[in-house]
Design goal:
The complex is a heterodimer of chains A (about 425) and B (about 650). By secondary structure, chain A is mostly helical. Chain A is built from 17 helices and three strands. Chain B is an alpha+beta fold. In chain B, strands 2, 3, 4, 5, 10 and 14 form a six-stranded mixed beta sheet that branches. In chain B, strands 12-11-18-17-16 form a five-stranded antiparallel beta sheet, sandwiched between helices. Chain B is globular. Classes of the chains: A mainly alpha (about 425), B alpha+beta (about 650).
Chain lengths: ~425, ~650
């Protein structure tokens, strides 16, 4: 079975093409980000980030081959074992991890570092898929939802303990999969409304928010068909409005009265970078300048000025999108966004075609995780999202990130190739 | 039904994608405020470094201010020096200096400016300003330099210098950049964020020739520099400088606090250095010289030196034992049978024992305290008693970091049961006879001068202390003092037990261990002398210690003085303390004869092989090499009789 010659034929080559496109563009941009006109480093100089990234790409190809050669039952059978190993890894990093940039989440060996939190998403996705594979599971029942919550919370807490807020937030992306599998629609809706309220409550004065909620309630009532305006419905709309106001006031009170000034600033900076114009606000302004200066077609490969002279911090990891925006302009940005959208739609399309629930759930997890990363990462460089340090999949410099995203994707492609194989035999 | 949800998911993906594309379209095509490439002008970012806050003493006298200086930057690609030799002569550097600086600058970048010479004074700059027209590629940048008009307090202040590579990498929010100035050690480090202010950033448009064309976008992205806040310290500059002069030719420290507030009035670390040495352009040369000085002037002794407290510790013993109920003002012990030596006649009650610093008296006090729990197994009794004693002493701040507002305070040492179990390799293998040297402040105790002045303040306050601190205001006098410097810490001793101890301390000054000359009229000084063992470690003299406060009934100042290698605590240290107290209470010095004697005294230790700083953690008591468990309370093999000095 392991030496099935059909393996490569049944792989979904459309997805692989999207993948190769992303990785290659990412590598060239890492090179551009570290390129300095004074030294002319070579593309494969192993002392630069670009050279190291090439090495990471090489090791990733080996990993991909391993995944494709493995029996497809492996991931199903060992899902919980992989999850357990990941939990142990996260515990280990808390004890023996190395502190980098204030977060204790790296295991260091020689010149290279590995971040176990990057792999936690993968293991959790497998475990969730395995758990949901049980027939008759109903996501509207609390009994079935509780263990899922447990599977999610455990790695979240461990990653949070190692001070990686960004990686923890990524776990919110599993809600997309849960929604597809039957989670009542009001749960994600409430989540989105609460997140919006949280942001809004920190930016605008209370009076505006109250006014906006009142106006919104009025609008809903006004748009309602007349026969629906029963007193029961009106009261519930009123209650929801009051609950939103209470929540907004609570957030405001908690942040301004309970938290210490330095903690308060940390939160405010997340929402509104202008609070700290020299720290995070500086990064966002510089990122916007870099992207904005790209215009329609960009300044050309290696011709960027803003990303060259250290204007943009973290330019080869979290802010890699700035290099694309500056050097390749709107067209380049369009291509990257389109690449990701194509990849995401393809993943959802494939996931829906799966015959086993395991593969479908896993596919949705992959789509959700990649979507969340893309949304946050690009969003923060163009000033639409808070600055949360998570990488752009396949683009950002860093072995852990490239490895984990490639494994995530190719395990799904492996599961998918199996479906194609059985189909072709029938 | 659920299958249809895939459309919602895909729709959500595409909506976000569309929003982002629209935003990118707006940023990159519609909004030209971000487009720099369209015009010939380029944007130059100019960083404005604000003035660092000044530092004042408690009455508003300046301790630290900033002098404007010029840093000269060079851009190698633009540099044109027609006559290198003449240029070097003008700059007062050698040809090889010039070559190496330019070499480094080129290695960094030939297009970006690098530092060429820093901190040229106004006069120097005026001298070369006109001549610089002939040389291209050099730009002066206004900067400032810390100046210390009072020439004192170097160790407590710390210094300001370029940020180190390590600190640069460690910062959480990237504020500092290579070459930025930052406070190191002392108050400059502790209050760095208040003192430094906020850096400003200005965007200036320049054309291709580098000529300024005004601000970019009317300054929409500029942030103004905010000057640093001034720091008001509780130091009394006049007394501080007077205390400095007393410590001439001595190694040690003086710390004085106001007992009711915990404010540090005087903080002397001797030998010290002129803080101006570390702010000039000769920083590295001077720093290396100071770091190599065998008397270690860079160590801030009040918080970083650790000594055995010697007899000053008897104050705590007397208080803790009274609170425990094993000691009364009338309790009488003679010298008989005690394994510790003494210099007094012996046979005192509590007041006399403190005044005369009777060693056997406190040996018996400690013994009764340890065995008060009455356990029949003397080993277990010792362990229980020692732990109770440890917990009571801990409340005085001994064996913990007090939390003074300086980095690098040391914890010191207060041994507990676990420590002795480890030392004797197991529980119940040691007892009172192994640890009795604690009774007179020797043994495993390690205490910094700051903790001893805190003890004096706690006694002066009759039962509480406030963490000693330097800050008396941030921005303005009395503002922004952290809460922990207002909180009272109780020592857990009832007020009535302080009366006999304080009377004993007064007795020590009037007719006890203190030199008669140090009993200055009108100060009502109460004190306790101490002599920290040092002579045994191959030195000629012990360390002289004195702690005390004055006046007796409404204390205004508590003081601790350490003079290393000066012998008896009643002599050198007590004299220094008396003069400092008099100066603070009367604002003038009347005992000029005593002052003259103190200033002339020279206690600098011989250098080799002695170490000038108190050795840390060398056990003074001869402990049995392999302690054997013993069944009776009476030691069969007494440790070699140690004549522990203490006065």
């Amino acid at each position: 079975m392991a030496r099935d010659p059909e393996i490569t034929r049944n792989i979904d080559w459309v997805t692989v093409m999207f993948y190769i496109g992303c990785v290659l563009m990412g590598w060239l941009n890492v090179y551009a980000a570290v390129y300095s006109p004074e030294t002319h480093p070579s593309l494969i100089d192993f002392s630069t980030n670009a050279g190291k990234q090439l090495m990471w790409i090489g090791t990733t190809i080996i990993l991909i081959i391993c995944i494709l050669v493995l029996n497809h039952r492996f991931f199903d059978t060992f899902a919980y074992v992989i999850y357990a190993v990941m939990i142990v890894g996260l515990l280990l990093v808390l004890v023996a991890g190395t502190n980098i940039n204030g977060s204790r989440s790296w295991i260091k060996y020689g010149a290279f570092q590995i971040q176990p939190a990057e792999f936690a998403k993968l293991a959790t996705a497998l475990a969730l898929a395995k758990y949901l594979d049980v027939p008759g599971l109903n996501l509207t029942k609390r009994k079935d939802l509780l263990p899922i919550g447990g599977l999610l919370i455990l790695p979240c807490l461990l990653i949070l303990a190692s001070n990686e807020t960004g990686s923890t937030l990524v776990f919110a992306s599993f809600i997309i999969m849960l929604y597809r599998e039957g989670l009542p629609g009001w749960i994600p809706a409430t989540g989105i409304v609460l997140a919006l309220l949280l942001v809004v409550a920190l930016i605008f004065p209370k009076l505006y928010i109250f006014g906006a909620i009142l106006a919104l309630g009025g609008l809903v009532v006004w748009l309602m068909p007349r026969y629906n305006r029963t007193s029961r419905n009106l009261i519930s709309i009123g209650l929801v409005g009051v609950a939103m106001m209470v929540f907004a006031t609570g957030v405001d009170f908690f942040v301004n009265k309970v938290l210490q000034p330095h903690q308060r600033n940390r939160i405010k900076v997340l929402i509104d970078p202008n609070v700290d114009p020299l720290g995070v606000g500086w990064n966002v302004t510089q990122a916007k300048i870099a992207i904005g200066s790209g215009r329609l077609s960009g300044k050309g490969f290696l011709e960027g000025t803003q990303t060259k002279f250290d204007f943009v911090p973290e330019q080869s990891t979290d802010f890699i999108f700035c290099t694309i925006g500056e050097e390749h302009g709107f067209l380049g940005s369009l291509i990257v966004v389109a690449l990701f959208m194509g990849l995401l739609c393809r993943i959802i399309f494939l996931a829906e075609k799966q015959r086993s629930r395991f593969a479908r759930v896993y596919g949705y997890c992959v789509g959700g995780i990649i979507f969340f990363h893309v949304m946050i990462n690009i969003g923060m460089t163009i000033g639409l999202m808070p600055v949360i340090g998570i990488p752009l999949p396949f683009f950002s410099y860093g072995g852990s990130s490239l490895w984990s995203f490639s494994m995530l994707l190719f395990i799904f492609l492996k599961l998918d190739s199996r479906r194609a194989m059985t189909l072709s035999r029938v | 039904m659920l299958e249809n949800r895939k459309y919602s998911v895909i729709a959500a993906f595409l909506i976000v994608g569309a929003i982002y594309l629209f935003r990118l379209f707006y940023l990159q095509i519609l909004d030209d405020s971000y487009s720099l490439g369209s015009s010939k002008n380029s944007i130059k970012r100019v960083i404005e470094i604000p003035y660092r806050g000044q530092i004042y003493d408690r009455s508003g006298k300046l301790i630290v201010y900033n002098t404007p200086v010029y840093d000269l930057y060079v851009t190698p690609k633009e540099m044109k020096v027609p006559d290198t030799l003449a240029f070097c002569r003008m700059m007062d550097i050698t040809r090889s200096d010039f070559d190496s600086i330019i070499g480094l600058a080129k290695a960094y970048s030939s297009l970006k400016p690098s530092l060429f010479l820093r901190q040229l004074s106004k006069e120097d700059y005026a001298r070369i300003q006109d001549a610089l027209v002939d040389y291209r590629g050099f730009t002066p940048v206004m900067s400032s330099m810390r100046t210390y008009p009072a020439h004192t307090l170097a160790n407590a202040l710390g210094y300001v210098s370029q940020i180190s590579k390590k600190k640069l990498d460690e910062q959480e929010v990237p504020y500092y950049r290579q070459g930025d100035y930052i406070g190191h050690n002392g108050l400059e480090q502790q209050y760095e964020t208040d003192l430094r202010g906020r850096r400003g950033v200005k965007f200036v448009m320049q054309n291709v020739r580098g000529v300024n064309k005004g601000s970019w976008k009317n300054g929409a992205f500029d942030t103004l520099a905010v000057a640093g806040q001034n720091l008001y310290t509780s130091i009394d500059l006049d007394v501080q400088q007077f205390a400095d002069s007393l410590m001439l030719n001595k190694v040690g420290s003086i710390v004085a606090v106001e007992p009711s507030t915990g404010e540090i009035l005087v903080s002397v670390s001797a030998p010290s250095y002129d803080p101006n040495l570390l702010s000039s352009r000769f920083f590295s040369k001077n720093y290396v010289k100071l770091a190599r000085n065998p008397y270690k002037p860079l160590i801030n002794r009040p918080i970083m030196a650790s000594y055995r407290p010697g007899s000053t510790f008897k104050l705590i013993q007397a208080l803790v034992a009274q609170q425990q109920g094993t000691l009364f003002p009338s309790t009488f012990y003679s010298h008989a049978g005690a394994p510790v030596g003494c210099h007094c006649a012996g046979g005192y009650t509590l007041r006399g024992a403190i005044a005369k610093s009777c060693n056997p008296y406190f040996y018996y006090v400690f013994r009764r305290m340890i065995y008060a729990n009455g356990d029949r197994n003397t080993f277990r009794a010792s362990a229980i008693g020692l732990q109770q004693w440890h917990d009571a002493v801990y409340k005085f701040g001994i064996g913990q970091k007090l939390g003074v507002d300086l980095p690098s305070e040391l914890r010191g040492n207060l041994p507990d049961v676990d420590d002795y179990d480890r030392m004797y390799r197991g529980p119940l293998r040691w007892k009172f006879s192994n640890v009795y040297s604690l009774s007179i402040g020797e043994g495993e105790l390690l205490i910094s001068p700051l903790k001893l002045v805190n003890l004096a303040a706690a006694v002066a306050n009759r039962g509480y202390w406030i963490v000693p601190h330097y800050v008396k205001g941030i921005g303005q006098l009395g503002a922004g003092i952290p809460d922990q410097y207002l909180e009272k810490h109780s020592v857990g001793i009832d007020p009535q037990y302080f009366t006999p101890v304080i009377e004993g301390m007064r007795g020590a000054v009037v007719q006890g261990t203190v030199d008669k000359a140090a009993n200055l009229p009108g100060t009502e000084l109460c004190g306790k002398t101490g002599t920290s063992q040092n002579a045994k470690m191959g030195h000629r003299f012990d360390h002289s210690i004195f702690i005390g406060f004055a006046p007796m009934n409404s204390p205004k100042i508590a003081v601790a003085v350490f003079v290393e290698n000066a012998g008896w605590g009643g002599d050198a240290a007590a004299r220094v303390a008396a003069l400092v107290v008099e100066r603070y209470l009367k604002r003038k010095t009347e005992a000029n004869a005593l002052k003259g004697r103190v200033i002339e005294a020279n206690y600098m230790p011989r250098l080799a092989p002695a170490r000038p700083v108190a050795p840390r953690k060398i056990d003074s008591v001869a402990k049995p090499a392999a302690p054997k468990p013993m069944m009776t309370g009476r030691p069969t093999a007494k440790p070699a009789p140690v004549a522990i000095s203490g006065n």
